[in-house]
Amino acid sequence: AKDTARLNTIRLIRSSFANAAIDLKTEQLSDEQAQTVLKKMAKMRNESIAMFEKGGASERAAAERAELALIEQWLPSMASEEQVREWVKDAIKEAGPDNMGKVMGALMKAHKAEVDGSMAQKIVKEELEAASS
């Protein structure tokens, strides 16, 4: 039996790499550029999953989850929530507790490849609220 879902996802990844190479006017993507493409694809799948679940299309959400699992095989693992929370506390000490943008900037500058942006934003909000109360 052929695994068409897996094959289609791999074809989609290759196509995305080819498009990115054309956009960046390069023969071959660097590892960092390839990871950026994969992260963008993963983010799109996460958004689609949320929308399909909200709309009651659980089969489509399951298909997106399968694609996401395959894409994530080639992405470096992200930091745990506990680790991100520690980094956020360090970023607050560095940037000050009064500006979320500066805290996010400091955090992403130091740990961009290791942190999921939406999780980081949620934790920064929580930590800044805790610091101000």
Please explain how this structure is put together.
The chain has 133 residues and is an all-alpha fold. Helix content is 77%, strand content 0%. The chain contains six helices and no strands. The protein is globular. The model has no long low-confidence stretch (mean pLDDT 90).
Keywords for this entry:
6 helices; single chain; mainly alpha; 133 residues; globular; 77% helix
Mean pLDDT: 90
Rg measurement, Å: 18 Å
Low-pLDDT stretches: none
Counting copies of identical and different chains, the oligomeric state is single chain
- Sheet with the most strands, sense and barrel status: none
Helix and strand composition category: mainly alpha
The count of helical stretches stands at 6
Bin the helical content.
over 70%
Distance between the termini: 59 Å
Number of strand segments = 0
Proportion of beta-strand residues: under 5%
Task: Name the shape in a single word.
Answer: globular
Order of helices and strands: HHHHHH
